[in-house]
Design brief:
Elements: H1 7-22, E1 27-28, E2 54-57, E3 62-67, E4 70-79, E5 90-93, E6 96-102, E7 110-118, E8 122-126, E9 137-139, H2 141-150, E10 156-160
Parallel strand pairs: 2-10, 8-9
Antiparallel strand pairs: 1-6, 2-3, 3-4, 4-9, 5-10, 6-7, 7-8
Organism: Pseudonocardia sediminis
Domain L,D-TPase catalytic: 52-160
Active site: 125, 136
Length: 161
């Protein structure tokens, strides 16, 4: 059925089909289109613009939520992708969310409070912030839940550094 697809996308499509068939509720649709570049002014204390709703500095391992051009949460410790699994830099939009997600790629590993924003299943989610991820942005439990509750499908995510 999915014979011509490879890698993370084939797994994402298969998982999406299984989710649809199983009747699980998933918010949004995964299309992973990058957001257009912004010419908005920067937000003090972050590397992101006032249009961002979520901001990540990969080099500093920090994340923020931004509301009306001002920091509403952060800086927070965050884990980003390690060598060969880097979190992609750029401007994105939230594509879908799943509160109790499990990774189809990594042995059914839990990804609580998952907010997907980039191609290849890249998401914010709860996890260990002290070790590199496989590309996702891991946050501590409380902040991961707040990101999940605050960000909506279409929210702008900016990844820098």
């Amino acid at each position: 059925m999915f014979g011509n697809l490879t890698g993370r996308w084939s797994r994402a499509i298969v998982v999406g089909a299984l989710v649809a068939v199983s009747g699980l509720v998933v918010t949004g649709v995964a299309s992973a289109k990058p957001a257009p570049a912004s010419s908005a002014p920067g937000v003090a204390g972050t590397p992101c613009t006032a249009e961002a709703r979520a901001c990540v500095d990969r080099a500093a391992k920090k994340a923020w939520l931004i509301t009306d051009g001002k920091v509403s949460l952060g800086p927070l410790p965050a884990s980003t992708g390690g060598p060969g699994h880097e979190t992609p830099p750029g401007d994105f939009t939230v594509e879908w969310k799943h509160q109790d997600h499990r990774s189809a790629e990594f042995n059914n590993a839990p990804m609580p409070w998952a907010v997907f924003f980039a191609q290849g299943g890249i998401a914010f989610h709860e996890g260990n912030v002290h070790t590199p991820s496989a590309g996702c942005v891991r946050l501590e439990a409380g902040p991961a839940k707040t990101f999940y509750e605050t960000l909506q499908v279409g929210s702008r995510v900016e990844i820098r550094g």
